[in-house]
Prior knowledge:
Elements: E1 81-84, E2 89-92, E3 96-100, E4 105-109, E5 113-116, E6 122-124, E7 130-132, E8 138-140, E9 146-148, E10 154-156, E11 162-164, E12 170-172, E13 178-180, E14 186-188, E15 194-196, E16 202-204, E17 210-212, E18 218-220, E19 226-228, E20 234-236, E21 242-244, E22 250-252, H1 295-302, H2 309-313, E23 350-356, E24 358-362, E25 368-376, H3 382-400, E26 407-408, E27 413-417, E28 424-432, E29 444-457, H4 460-466, H5 475-492, E30 494-496, E31 499-502, E32 509-512, E33 515-528, E34 531-544, H6 549-557, H7 561-565, H8 571-581, E35 585-588, E36 597-607, E37 612-614, E38 621-623, H9 624-632, E39 642-647, E40 652-656, E41 660-662, H10 674-684, H11 688-702, H12 708-713, E42 716-717, E43 722-728, E44 734-735, E45 744-745, E46 764-765, E47 768-772, H13 779-795, E48 799-800, E49 809-810, H14 816-831, E50 840-845, H15 850-864, E51 868-872, H16 873-878, H17 881-894, E52 901-902, H18 903-906, E53 918-926, E54 937-944, E55 953-960, E56 972-974, E57 982-984, H19 986-998, E58 1004-1010, H20 1017-1035, E59 1043-1049, E60 1056-1058, ...
Parallel strand pairs: 46-48, 47-49, 47-50, 50-51, 53-58, 58-59
Antiparallel strand pairs: 1-2, 2-3, 3-4, 4-5, 5-6, 6-7, 7-8, 8-9, 9-10, 10-11, 11-12, 12-13, 13-14, 14-15, 15-16, 16-17, 17-18, 18-19, 19-20, 20-21, 21-22, 23-43, 23-60, 24-34, 24-42, 25-27, 25-29, 26-27, 28-29, 30-31, 31-33, 32-33, 33-34, 35-36, 35-41, 36-39, 37-38, 39-40, 43-61, 44-45, ...
Amino acid sequence: MVRKRRTDLAGSSEGSQNAPISQESGSSRGSGGPLGSQPPQAVQQQGGRGWGSGRGGPIGNPQHGQGGGRGGGHNQGRGGRSGRGSEGQQYRGTEGQQYRGGEGQQYRGGEGQQYRGGEGQQYRGSEGQHYRGGEGQQYRGGEGQQYRGGEGQQYRGGEGQQYRGGEGQQYRGGEGQQYRGGEGQQYRGGEGQQYRGGEGQQYRGGEGQQYRGGEGQQYRGGEGQQYRGGEGQQYRGGEGQQYHGGEGQQFPGGHPVGGNTPSGRGVDPYAAGPSRPPLPELHQATQTPYKGQPASLAEASSSGTSELALTEQVQNLSLQAEPEASQAIVPASSKSIRFPLRPGKGKNGTKCVVKANHFFAELPKKDLHQYDVSITPEVASRGVNRAVMKELVNVFKESHLGGRLPAYDGRKSLYTAGPLPFTSSEFHVTLVDEGDGTAAERRQRNFRIVIKLAARADLHHLGMFLAGQQADAPQEALQVLDIVLREMPTSRYFPVGRSFYSPDLGRRQTLGEGLESWRGFYQSIRPTQMGLSLNIDMSSTAFIEPLPVLEFVIHLLNREARDVLSRPLSDSDRVKIKKALRGVKVEVTHRGNMRRKYRISGLTSQATRELTFPVDERGTLKTVVQYFQETYGFTIQHTNWPCLQVGNQQRPNYLPMEVCKIVEGQRYLKRLNERQLTALLRVTCQRPNDRERDIEQTVHHNAYHNDPYAKEFGIKISDKLATVEARILPPPWLKYHETGREKDCLPRVGQWNMMNKKMVNGARVNNWSCINFVRHIQDSVTLNFCQELAQMCRTSGMEFAAEPVIPPMFARPEQVERALKTHYHDAMSILRQQQKELDLLIVILPDSNGSLYGDLKRICETELGLVSQCCLAKHVYKGSKQYLANVSLKINVKVGGRNTVLVDAISRRIPLVSDRPTIIFGADVTHPHPGEDSCPSIAAVVASQDWPEVTKYAGLVCAQAHRQELIQDLFKIDPDPKRGNSPGGMIRELLISFKKATGDKPQRIIFYRDGVSEGQFYQVLFYELDAIRKACASLEPDYQPPVTFVVVQKRHHTRLFANNHRDQQSVDRSGNILPGTVVDTKICHPTEFDFYLCSHAGIQGTSRPAHYHVLWDENKFTADGLQTLTNNLCYTYARCTRSVSIVPPAYYAHLAAFRARFYMEPETSDSGSVASAAAGRAAAAGGGAGGGRSTRTPGVGAVRPLPALKDNVKRVMFYC
């Protein structure tokens, strides 16, 4: 995750680690059980746990490694008999029988049958039946049955059945079932179902269903179902199920629940991939009325919303988990769960019209075919693969491809609009390297290509999905269309992910140190309510300037050329150059037109004049300088510089820097420094009307109507931005203190100020001090600034002492640790006599240097237990009233106060939130920058600690495995040799903290999750909702408050523009749409509950609306209810008097995660030793209360734990 740049340190991002935890005694409760219709089973443990206690220490390690499904070892019965024959073994116990034969195993248990056959078939019965056959078929029963066959067929039951077959067949149930097949079959449901197929099959429904197929199959329904198939299979249902197969297999029925195979491995419904632990159960929590709640309210909150309960909420979906498993790794696709359907469109607010950068795409009516591509020899480069395929099409299009123009993904798949005249064919092409000099000198490479028919991509299902008649988005069809529309831009521009860049799309801007910005555009096909849409947005990114390497190095070192070239490189310069050039592709310039390309692997440790290499088998050595002079007649000038090293360590090749030039079109993937980032932001910042104009020009320039690939596949793209109906939600009234002249405030255009207002709960700062790290600021200036700040805090409603405990102290930045500890000791030597604590430390910094700031925060918050407020030197001199007012807002919440609350919260008028105690969570994971492979990811969770105000948030953080998106520390079972297993985790601690602060346990949970891409929705929901459930059940076995799980997305490319930029009533001062603008039509998901909300006023550039997508909703929010709640919360952000762009809990989680990286990752080597020592101490003390949090990943070393926060720090919003 890219860090946000701080514009001033008073507004800097600061985070948290642990939350206040109740230490009261409580009942011995635990978790770990399946989250089914029954409450999770309690974990056996000792000591006072439950609601009355919490832990400040580490929360255990997730064990989410490889492993099968259900069993741990070999099955054992109880006191049974056993025998052994020549070709088979048999075991029979009191509660279960087991038989193992030569080609197929069978197991039958007391409450759960399981059968496994010779070719890999497996059946598991009861409420979660599962059958897997030899070619990949899979059947899963219960109330959400699913069948998947060898060629991709899928059947899903419940109240809205769906069947998907190999050649496009589809069955969808509900109240009006419909089936449409590949060769004209048709099924129509209702009360008298009828089916008629291609080869004479007939099905007739009613109360006695009958089916008769082509090869004699017969099915008859009623109370005793019977099925008879082509090779003699027979199935008979009722109370004694029987299955008879082709080779004589037979399975007698009963009431199966499940069991283990003889090998000890359980049923793995995802056996095609790596083995995984079992999935958690996800059930709808039962909503219990809150005490004292009116009956009508309780009934209303627990009632359902529609008959479409199949895809709406997954009632009683059974994904069985082992009782002892406290964690699970989710399979890549968990599609048996359905996200909530949209509960209608919102109606609140003033209607308006906006434009969106979505362009309608007409769905083609072509018959799409997919082919597997194998290229030999294999190459890693997509560019080479595309060149091979381009040559193949040029040579063989008319003669062998039937005139088709295929679309290629650059890897293994080829797509055509209609079939090729073969099912499998082999081709041979030759590529000539165009950059390698004369025709005689050019390298030729031969490739063998095999193209083989793989499948037909059916667009019929995509049409049904867009029409809201199918729940799952057919990703394969969307991927094909995306690949088709990427073909032409890929051949014109430099592709980077889903974006395309070119120096010709806009003027290059120098970013400094050898980098430049290129303009480009983002493109993605998306399913929406209006049909398919093509999302186009402008984009900029950093590229390496195509300079001679020597010139690049001079720019990189940011010194005069004469100064750089006249002396040997220092060690620090060498490290900087090596880091910048590693992996960069260069071409040689000393061989005329022979421009061979190489990738840099490093720098030589010796100067060029010292380098030698063997030139013959006898080991005769020659210097690099001699070789270039004798072979090419090239005299190396800078012999005191190192050479570039290309190739591998075993056979290194040396290239002098002065004969190399950087190849154009290489994106810079490493971290930008502050100056480069500022320059790039300046380039990308565009006013809304300018951005809209550039987007339209890009669509015009791309000329999709003339795109040969779009024409080939029949795709038509509109050239007009989508016009969308929107609404502007009203701002909420805000409550301030009664002693102020203005007690209530109604924001205007997303902002307000503190004039005539006092904080609704002003905190008290009796004891404070100041330390100054800026040499040229005198002590008198420092003291005067602090006194002005104290006065502003008092004016804003705080109690703030006029004088510091001790006079301000000056210290040098390199002595930050010693200075802080000395200053703290001096202040506490006075306060300790009065039995008081230091409430606040004001710190003046020279600039926004991350190293000094990070060291300071780490020392104050994890070693001294000090809340601190940093201010930049430039603000000390200016002394702006607005700046002081903003800092006072931050100080107040850091020391336990509240700045403002919603009037509707105080008067209990927020739907669902006000009727019963509600806790609102925010969660985020920040990842290290590319290239920082050894750094962990940081997860943060915050939760509201007051009700009904929902304004104060406590936060917890933990380090976890590199780039791990699932939050591992949400719920844990910590082994404790003395007291037994001890439940813990961030959710549990925050729930306990809420109860301690409010006196009530939460009766509703709202969870805003930031930083999740669409491809991770299922994984994150399964894992994290399961953790929430287990955390609740660990406090009380029957405690399962209803949960609403909402993903917050900012990294998308949808932009909203005013319909008329000149209409002053529809835009703010920056030209952006007005705050509160919400869209849940046309460009949103065809069926699911999502919306775009622009909750903030623009400052500069084009506002980006946040996208909210509901993945789980047991609280039954209406569209208006969730949209209004989210918009209103955006006005409660503590650090400014403006509404913010994402809901504050998610914002706070991001700040907390950002802060925690300073604890772990100091930016200089000097401070690195300090952090390592601190982390080492935390690791050594790990397990005790207040120990650091970390996560161990199987197969990976333990993640270095974060140092623990001091108790008096973690009780407040110190990260603000």
